[in-house]
Structure formats: C-alpha cells, structure tokens
Amino acid sequence: MAIRKIAFVFLFLNVVFLNSSYSQRYSALDSIVLKYPSFGSPEKLAERIQKDFTSEHDKARAIYSWIALNLNYDLKTYLDPPEPKTFTSKNELENAKQIQLAHASTTQKAFRSKKAVCEGFSLLYQQLATLSGLKCQFVTGDSKRLLNDIGRKRLGSNHAWNTVQIDGKWILIDATWGEGYFDEKRQVSVKKFTPIYFDMAPDYFYMTHFPESSMYAGNTGNKEAFLNGPLIYNEFVDNSCEISAPFSGVVHANDGDKITFQIKNISRLEDLYYLNKKEEHVKIENPKEKDGQLEFQVTYNRKYGRFITFFLSNQALAAFKIVPKQI
C-alpha cells in the first residue's frame, strides 16, 4: 500500500509540474485544454470545447492544442507502413461510402489509442471541428521535412493536414507537426508541442506542404519548384525569414566554390553558423547588410557532405542541397 501511495504522489507531482510548465510556456487557452480530463468520445470532447470557447478561432485552436498535446505519433507505422487500402466498388457512391467507413475507423482508433500517423491526426481534427460547428477539410499531399526531401524525384501523397474556416477565412493547420517532430539522426519521434502550425502563413506553410488537389494549392507554384526549394525549419518561421538567394534549394557548386546567400530578418548574426561532418561550427564568410537583408558566403567543401544546414542560436534555420556542376 505504501508503494502505491508513493507512486501516486510521484505521478501527481509530475502532472502538476507538467501543467505548471505548459501553463507558463503557452497561452491561457492551451493551458485550459491541457487540464482537460479524459473523454469517452469525440462528441463529449467537442461538447466541452463548445462550452469553454465561443469564437471560431478559439474552438479551432483548442482542437489543435488538444490533439497535439494528447496524441502521440505512431513511429512504428510510419517506419513500416501497411499496404495502402484499395477499394473496388462498382460505382462512385459505393466507393465514397467505403472511404468514409475507413476514415471513420481511423478516426476512432486515433481517439481511443491516442496514437496515429498524419492521417489519423487530420481526420480526428476534421471530426472534432465538425462536431464543434466549424467547416473543415481534410487535405492530402506531399511534404518536405527531411534533408533528402530537397530535390528528390516526385512521389505521391505522403502527408495529411487540414484547412478550417474561421470568420469566413480558410486557415492552414497541421496538428501532426504541432505534436512534435521526427529526429532523423536518432530515428526517434520527439514530442514537442509546436504552436506555429496553427494558422501558419501560407507562404511558409506551402514551402513544406504541397496539396494533392489544386483546389487547395492557391499560388503554390508547381511540384518541381516545391521539391527543389530549400528546407525550412521552425526557427525560420519564428523569425519571419525570407531567402532571396540562391533562387533554389538545390545549389550547383564544386569543391572550393563560394556560394552567396541572402536571407532577410536575421538579427543575431553572431549566432549564425553551419556544421561540418564532425559537427563543428563553421562561421559564415563576408557577412554584410544589403537592402535590409544579410548577405554572406560559404566556401563549399565536399568533405562537409551534400547538404548545408544553417543554424541560428543552435536551432536549425534552413538547409540546401549541393550538387556538383557539370563539367
């Protein structure tokens, strides 16, 4: 009995500490959602959200926060995905019913197990949004999150997210990336609540997301330009950075060539660097302010590898792929 009491006290203190930590770090709305108890159904959760929040914005944000804070990414399924489901119906109506049933099963599993990949995150968001009186769409498409995504060949859909209508305006939401991120080096999923993937500016969102359907694409350009663009990280968005040069994320350079970069809104110059293969800090060269942006150079050394990733205050900022020039 004493051991059980100690374990309970330890668990209680952990919950209190987490609540306190999150409350200090995130908004008041997120703190309210963090303290929610377990709910027996999505309907019960939606009822609570509608009780606690009245505006469309707050409801949409509460759903985002609840999913990002409560669901865990299913890394096992991500690394070893099952065979895609195929539907062999005689007509479009029957096919649509089968897809709807499959989506309902995925949504229910995500809510009950608190574990899913992007499809489960996004379908659950859509269900909770609909139950809360919001107009919401489930969107599939391509995404860029790993270094090898820069300049890769075209592939089909590999990600899902949402767009939800708030006060007549459709905004972009990725609750999966709001939950955390995949550590490519360690091959582990890291849970880290990330608020920026709620209502992210389209210019930034579409640098890492490319919708399968043209009805969601807006002015996102073509698929090749998307894949060849630089890889941006959360720090890039947080600092409202813009890249003026190079014009592509795929840079053609040979050993010893100087590559010129121009990035707007970098205020902490002394903290900007990239890494060599030994993960040693390498300072940028010839930095100068020009037309409201920072211009600097990097002398390419093939020993550093195929990619150059810039860091700002020890946080990844943006990455480029280096391809040898044709001689």
UniProtKB/TrEMBL annotation:
<dbReference type="Pfam" id="PF01841">
    <property type="entry name" value="Transglut_core"/>
</dbReference>
<protein>
    <submittedName>
        <fullName>Transglutaminase</fullName>
    </submittedName>
</protein>
<dbReference type="InterPro" id="IPR038765">
    <property type="entry name" value="Papain-like_cys_pep_sf"/>
</dbReference>
<dbReference type="InterPro" id="IPR052557">
    <property type="entry name" value="CAP/Cytokinesis_protein"/>
</dbReference>
<feature type="domain" description="Transglutaminase-like">
    <location>
        <begin position="110"/>
        <end position="177"/>
    </location>
</feature>
<dbReference type="GO" id="GO:0005737">
    <property type="term" value="C:cytoplasm"/>
</dbReference>
<dbReference type="InterPro" id="IPR002931">
    <property type="entry name" value="Transglutaminase-like"/>
</dbReference>
